[in-house]
Amino acid sequence: MRPLIIPVLLAILSSLRAFAADSPPQVVIAIQPLDSVKAERLEVVKKGLEEAFGLKVDLLTEKPLAKDAWYVPRSRYRAEKLLDQLNDDVSGKYQIVVGVTGRDISTTKGEHEDWGIFGLGELGGRTCVVSTFRLGARGADEKQLRERLRKVAIHEMGHVMGLEHCPQQGCVMHDAESSIATVDGESGKFCEKCKSAWEAWLREAKEQ
User: Fold this and answer.
1) Disulfide engineering: 194 pairs with which of 31, 190, 201, 207, CB 3.0-4.6 Å?
2) Cβ atoms of residues 101 and 65 within 8 Å
């Protein structure tokens, strides 16, 4: 009976290869720490994204923030420059790259040339960045800061998936308008409309 084992194994391997070829590619997210970030906070982002989207998340090795992102007048980093850094530095095998930093970040908002923010996502693009710098506001303890970080990371990744701000109160895509109280008031989950939108994005991404 032993001579039959090899043909059977070869047949099984052939079937597995055929299944892999027919299966859609897996969407993989990368978390890129920028400068030093506590391991526990990075784990919160990783677990939060995995649970929210059901996708594989890789945690990459820490990198310094791009020097050209430094904004001298306000002593902080321009978020859009960090998005450029993430696009340039992180392997193209990752469909979405989430930068995480403890440094203060900002962008231009309306009439404000330099506006401090919790995070910034490239709408319909590939990258987003979140900062813990402002998430300890109002005397938040570490547990509350981590919960805020989880919500902001999910929110910014939603932007990368093409979702704009949602008018529904409680939806994680609701515009925080730079208010930490709004972040606290969010459920951390998507409303049905937003959930359907990112699921459609995911189906399309798997077909590409």
Assistant:
1) 190
2) yes
